[in-house]
Amino acid sequence: MPRGQARLRSITLAIRYSTVRRSVLATALLCVLSPAFADSATDLDGVVVTATRTAQTQDQTLSAVTVIDRADIERLQPSSLADLLRGTPGMALANTGGPGKATSVFLRGTESDHVLVLVDGVKIGSATSGSAALQDIPVEQIERIEIVRGPFSSLYGSEAIGGVIQIFTRRPEGAFVPSFMVGVGSDSHLTGSAGIAGKVGNGWYSLEASHDQTHGINSCRVGAAEAGAACFADQPDNDGYRNNALTLQGGYRFNEQWDGDVRLFRSEGHNDYDGTFSDSDDSATQVVGGRLHYRPTQDLTFTLSLGTSGDFSKDYLHGVYVDRFDTHRDIGSLQADIALGGGLLSAGFDYQRDQVDSSTDYAVDSRIDRGTFLQWQQSFGRQSLQASVRRDDNSQFGGKNTGSVLWGWDFTQTLRLTASYGTAFKAPTFNDLYYPGYGNPDLRPEKSQNIELGLRGTYGWGYWSLNAFRNKVDDLITYDASTGLPGNVEDARIRGAEGVVSGHVAGWLVTGTATWLDPRDETPGFDHGNLLARRARQMARVDLDRSFGNFSVGGSWYVSGRRYDDLDNQHPLGGYALTDLRVAYALTRDLKVQLALNNAFGKNYETAWYYNQPGRNYMLTLRYQPAQ
After folding, report:
1. Cα dihedral value 618, 619, 620, 626, nearest 10
2. Is 499 exposed, middle or buried (0-12, 13-18, 19+ CB in 10 A)?
3. What dihedral do alpha carbons 209, 210, 211, 217 form, nearest 10°?
4. Of 618, 583, 613, nearest in space to 600 by CA
5. Is there a contact between 67 and 144 (Cβ–Cβ < 8 Å)?
6. Which H/E stretch holds residue 581?
7. How many CB atoms lie within 10 A of CB 39?
8. pLDDT of 2-33, one tens digit each?
9. CA dihedral defined by 219, 144, 450, 419, rounded to 10 degrees?
10. Rg of the chain's alpha carbons, rounded to an integer?
11. Each residue of 297-315: pLDDT tens digit?
12. Is 156 helix (H, G, I), strand (E, B) or coil?
């Protein structure tokens, strides 16, 4: 599946899958015994920054947050970022044919382009398609992920209707820390990484390089051409994938008042898939950024951030160049954090310029957004408050105001009640507006209103939480079959609930989540009341892990309910359950061998109609990193 938008020529069906008319009734509930990624969930003193754009402990946050750290990644042995995200609360994924193929995330039932994705604070994603190429971010480059669910346009602007996913690349943990990893697996899968990181005086540095390649599987099921589905082609062959990635970063503390850091991340991939207009692409995701902190007093901090990100794609058919889609995003931010009266006031200005450079002509190929925001955080005894407002001025759509209020009450030493209200918006993509033969320049930005109620408990044995929410989306952008163009849906609704629990049971680390969704199209018309595409109504995950000296063993069980792949609910996707098994043995304090058996029972399943998913597969890994 290509990242370039040439596929819009065969699009009417594909766009319906991804930007479909919908209002989602999202609900996430239950979880037996523990939350996904319990190491992070139980370490509530860990610092998170995404929920407030300031540092606070996970226990202090008033938002629904999931944190995945490096220890979780190495314990779970995921083969991709999508495998790592699968099963987190409210998260549904759709993949178009295996490793390296286009992967969409639907957070709390919202669209894949309703989730803001950051890498080290820099917004990534394609300005043409509106989504980030998560399949091209290797897990070996990742130190930590923070997932914040709910509307966050009042802090980040457009796109954060469903939430924010922030990925932090690897950082040093000691004076000098070399590391390497090499793995072999099914389908001629070969992966490896090597890096060095360290601290020298008042400075630090980190360099990490990785490679991943596989012959893959046949991405599109035979019969797609006759069914008018998926790739619209019958090409029974293995569709391989190759990726090279590099992270280079460093920082320095000049004195007690000044410090800064710079970073570069680039991931390059080659992807084969099935298709009639193109069947392979060369792609790249790039992030360059820097940050400068100035603390004139203990109560005042200024942060200046500058960065640029790029999403680049060239499409080919039988090895012959077809087209090119490159997008560039330049960003800048100035934020002041002021301690006042026992609270924290944050004020900031954000600048963003999107530019399209493509072999396809767009009527408009650039736009600028300027945003100003204020946020107040305060605790009053057992109660906490977080309130924010923001004004975005877009060169295409004018001004847009958003805001949010979050409240928390620790009514016992172990129980906290939270409630929130927030608004968000999403500007149309350049494809929605201007793609030749498809775009609709009269589209309006999408708007949402979200209310949420949560309860969570923290005990000596672990942690649990339950969140219920309702999100109303106006002017939702969707494909209109009557015009053959995208249009605005007046009314869409999302309702839901999420539950998480975490702890140790009889020496086992038990983790799990569960989600229930009832995604419905509430727009009057033919599809009123239908389920939205590719959203399972029930999802759950349970992880079990235990160490026996140098030996460790674990397993994950993920279940997804039945879904439909189209608005008319004519193409069902069956429910499925996946079982992953893993073992590891520490040869020395620094050297470890791991073995993962994924989809252990060889379940056949689809997350998108007529797109295949890997069967039973394994990965054998040797990993070295000095113990700290």
Report:
1. -150
2. buried
3. -150
4. 618
5. yes
6. strand 576-586
7. 18
8. 554 434 433 333 333 333 333 332 322 223 23
9. 140
10. 23
11. 999 999 999 999 999 999 9
12. helix
Q: How far apart are CA 288 and CA 581, in angstroms?
A: 37
Structure tokens given for 75:
């314990």
Residue pair 512/31 in contact (Cβ under 8 Å)? The answer is: yes
**Length in residues, the chain:** 628
What span, in angstroms and rounded, lies between the C-alpha atoms of 5 and 445?
21
Return the closest-CA partner of residue 371 out of 354, 353, 348.
348
Please report which helix (H) or strand (E) contains residue 68, including its range: strand 64-69
226 or 215: which leads in pLDDT: 215
Strands 508-517 and 485-505 turn out to be antiparallel
Q: Who contacts 172 (Cβ-Cβ below 8 Å, separation ≥6)? A: 197, 198, 199, 204, 205, 206
Domain layout of the chain by residue ranges: 5-174+261-586+597-624
State the alpha helices, DSSP H only, in 121-264: 153-156, 224-227
Q: Give the Cα separation of 272 and 65 in Å (integer).
A: 35
Give, in order, the Cα–Cα distances in Å from 353 to each of 327, 368, 371: 11, 4, 12
pLDDT tens per residue across span 458-513:
888 889 999 999 999 888 887 766 677 788 877 778 889 999 998 998 899 998 89
Contact between residue 465 and residue 454 where contact means Cβ atoms under 8 Å apart: yes
77: tokens are 């042995």
Where would I find the H helices in 19-59?
A: 38-42
Class of CATH domain 5-174+261-586+597-624: mainly beta
pLDDT for the residue 230: 84
CA 169, 333, 65: angle at the middle one, nearest 5?
A: 50
Q: Which two tokens stand for residue 59?
A: 């226990």
- Neighbour-count burial of 296, counting CB atoms closer than 10 A to its CB (0-12 exposed, 13-18 middle, 19+ buried): exposed
DSSP secondary structure letter of residue 427: P
84, containing H or E segment: helix 81-85
CA distances from 203 to 143, 174, 209, 288 (A): 19, 12, 21, 19
